[in-house]
What does this fold into?
Amino acid sequence: MKNALSNVQSEKEIKMPLTKEQIAQRIAKELQDGYYINLGIGIPTLVANYIPEGVEVMLQSENGLLGIGPFPYEGEEDADLINAGKQTITTIPGSAFFDSAMSFGMIRAGRIDLTVLGAMEVSDTGDIANWKIPGKMVKGMGGAMDLVAAAKNIIIAMQHTNPKGESKLLPKCTLPITGVKCVKKVVSDLGVFDITPEGFRCLEYAPGVTIDEIKAKTAGRLTIANDVREMTF
It folds into this structure.
């Protein structure tokens, strides 16, 4: 099932930095058949629109749904079907509804193979800050604390810099920590990075982005993979 968000741009149409949809499209390539996946609020929710053909996954939402489909077309929304970010969604054949207690039971029992989360900051040791900015109102931390503690794999979808142009990939997080040494991979609008003992390792760069630009905009420790390559979609 596809919608207007799922139109895939050809590589020659892609301009840097990547859009939120393109970040989600790249992350979708990390999905493996049979995975149970939780998608966080923001960019991660868009991943549902780019699940590769032939790959069957089950998307879980902590508000009590297993089996999320793509976002609905405009005019076809059902206000009773929402994800944890209060966005209207669709279901797939075999979807199941349950209470939050059972949903968090799944998460805490380690049943989630992969969670994709947004982040305000990520450190070069894999710490993540994504739930609160001091002095700003926050409605709650949601399921992030449980997800970073219990998910088998954590991928971060984020912008590489903040609105001031300052790096969000840091030696140490400055905002309240959500989880310590838990992030495995970061996909930003500039590239794809593994978290290693040596810090961020750049595996791929976005079309039109140079390695020098990535170095200039990454405050944390950074190494470049010997086989670094341009990102494909």
